[in-house]
Amino acid sequence: MATFVLVHGSWHDGTLWADVAxxxxxxGHEVHSPTIAGHGPGASRAVTHDDCxxxxxxxxxxxxxxxxxxxxxxxxxxxxxxxxxxxxDRVRRLVFLNAFVxxxxxxxxxxxxxxxxELFPQLAAxxxxxxxxxxxxxxxxxxxxxxxxxxxxxxxxLLTPEPLGPTVEKLDLTKFYSLTHIxxxxxxxxxxxxxxxxxxxxxxxxxxxxxxxxxxxxxxGSHEVMFTNPALLATKLELAGRD
Length: 243
Prior knowledge:
By secondary structure, the protein is α/β, with parallel strands linked by helices. The chain has a single domain, classed as Alpha/Beta hydrolase fold, catalytic domain (Rossmann fold). The protein has eleven helices and eight strands. The chain has helices spanning 18-26, 49-62, 76-86, 114-125, 136-143, 149-156, 165-168, 174-178, 204-209, 225-228, 230-241, and strands spanning 3-7, 30-32, 68-73, 91-97, 131-132, 162-163, 184-189, 215-219. The chain is globular and about 45 Å long.
């Protein structure tokens, strides 16, 4: 059995992995789902990407975790890449779940389609704390299209504003791209329209190809399959995380 550390993406916090974590625990795995700094209800949004990474490494240290499968969803992909830079000998495997693998020297937002690059700063400029809240129509159509309307509305109420800062910081990932000894997997959800399907520059496969040698695991489901089919996702994370 394995130890899984599940790192969430934008607008999420660690509690939103609960259904997937329960399925993995039922299969005998040890599961941790920390919340990234600046995320979740009531958290200060005045954080940097370094703060996001430090919050996960601190959690791993406090729980004396080693030899774990480190899973990053969406924005969490940029976080786990930098966690691996800091703890390269403690990560058993990296698993990117429809996640960003930013080009070295770019920001997460740089690796999104132009529409998001324009929209996010505009939304943040309308707030007092430089945050972005995903519009419901984008959530419903692009992020959770495999849910009925009631489930889409229910899950949208679980989201919290995302700090813009960590998504626009340029990231030095030189060390990450040198860590070829850490196995990595990419889990690809086939009904995910959060990034344009088939986009050669901004799509999920463009991110996956940056990993070099990697294991590809596919499944039916949207960007938010942890809400719509947690049992299937748990099974696929097992496949992605095995030796």
